[in-house]
Amino acid sequence: MVSDPDRLRSTLGGPGLARVVARLTDRIAHDRDLYAPLMLEEVTDEERRAVAGLLGRKDRGAASLTVSPTAVEATLRRAGICDDLLSAVLTLTGPVSVRADERARHDHARTELVEILAGCRHASEPWFAEWSARLAADGTLTKAVRRGGGVVRQARVVLDLLPAASPIPISVLAERATGDTKALAGTPLDRLVLRALAARISTPVETTSEGRRALWESAGVIVDDLASQVLVLGLRATGSALADWLNAAADTATPFRVTLHQLVTMPLLVTTPRVFVCENPAVLRAAVTVPGAALICTEGIPSLACHRLVAACAGEVWWRGDFDWTGVRTTAEAQARYGATPWRMDMTTYRHALGRGESEALKGSSADSPWAPELAAHMAVTARAVMEERLIGELLEDLAEA
Predict the structure, then answer these.
(1) Quick one: pLDDT band at residue 310, thresholds 50, 70, 90?
(2) Judging by beta carbons within 10 Å of its beta carbon (0-12, 13-18, 19+), is residue 268 exposed, middle or buried?
(3) pLDDT-derived band of residue 299, with 50, 70 and 90 as boundaries?
(4) What percentage of the chain has pLDDT greater than the value 90?
(5) Which of 145, 189, 255, 319 is most exposed, with the fewest beta carbons within 10 Å of its own?
(6) Are 277 and 387 within 8 A, CB to CB?
(7) Both 173 and 268 in a single domain?
(8) Torsion angles phi and psi, residue 292, rounded to 5
(9) Distance (Å, rounded) from C-alpha 16 to C-alpha 341?
(10) End of a domain among 168, 200, 222?
């Protein structure tokens, strides 16, 4: 207990004893013996005088000093300043955290966040395990612990709500998950969840507004219903003014862009008996020369506008993508979601296309091809991707015969 803080500061708090107090503080922080003799090397004249004055001994001009914390405590007690050395140091420095206790609290908080992530409904999925492992490896989890862990807890809540059963505006998702409509607008939480969504579809994390929108849309989240678009050719429809526009574009074989906003405000029914879906605009551009070709182009990961238009198709849907893991994954999802028929997404087509020239390496997490299990297995062995443009000749033949 310190009975006279002012005298304590004038007695022990001067610059000549600052190194003594700092060494004692370090011992407290590391939970070491406070009373072990304290060695000071290369002491200054000011430090020698201060130690000599405190302990009542002669300054001998030595280059090093040994200070007894027990003697310091006895001096302070005799002067009626305080009862113990620990109280004296803490009065001068303020509270000192014991490092071992800090580490224990940090480890406990980290374990708690890991358990929170493990409770996510996606925890058993490979992409989630990959994302979680990266958080631990790159220091993100450590930073989150230091800041209270709130962003990780909120990310778990957001991911539990995704993919959305039906399209949901991002502000509504943010409010539902956090109570703040702006929580997913360029925030650390936004960036953390986008990393997870990128892992989910095995694609790099995007930093552009367009790339960010595409990642959110891959999980059913509407960022901008005007920016969400789908490119079409030759579709015929009924039910609204939008259907009339599609019919007029089909009459002249004109590629046409449809927004999610149009599809929501002007619902329609696509009456084309068989609609083909491709991934690359080059295929659709080439199909302009094929009379009656009916094609939807996803332009990569299907947008919400694309999904809504495909859902409005009354006839057959034939779907394909690049021979890469994203193309396999989106084809499998289309088969499960719309009963789509894989279009030239078979082993024979892949092997023939692979033999026509050099191909880039497969990237990202592998995916299953339930319609042809041997396809994904063979792709994993070859580790090569084949882009859709290599198949344009065959695809145009199919469109001509449809």
Answers:
(1) very high
(2) buried
(3) very high
(4) 66
(5) 255
(6) no
(7) no
(8) 75, 5
(9) 84
(10) 222
Task: Quote the domain boundaries for residue 371.
Answer: 229-401
Task: Give the separation between CA 89 and CA 149, rounded to whole angstroms.
Answer: 32
Q: In degrees rounded to 5, what are phi and psi of residue 49? A: -65, -40
Give the integer Cα–Cα distance in Å for 103 and 294. 63
Number of separate domains in the chain = 3
Provide the pLDDT for residue 207: 80
CA distance 143 to 141: 5
Whether 247 and 293 share a structural domain: yes
Q: Kindly state whether residues 287 and 323 are assigned to the same domain.
A: yes
Is residue 236 a contact partner of residue 246, using CB atoms and an 8 Å limit? yes
How far, in Å, CA of 243 to CA of 267, rounded?
Answer: 8
Where residue 318 sits, what CATH number does that domain have?
A: 3.40.1360
Pick the more confident residue, 118 or 98.
118
pTM beyond 0.70: no
Buried b (16+ CB within 10 A) or exposed e, 55-82: eeeeeeeeeebebebeebbebbeeeebb
The mean of the pLDDT values for the chain is 92
- Same domain assignment for residues 383 and 396: yes
Q: Does residue 293 contact residue 399 with C-beta atoms inside 8 Å?
A: yes
Is the pLDDT at 301 greater than 70, yes or no? yes
Q: What's the distance, CA 14 to chain centroid? A: 50
Q: Are 173 and 158 in contact (CB under 8 A)?
A: yes
**Alpha carbon distance 111, 186 (integer Å):** 28
Structure tokens, 376 = 């994904």
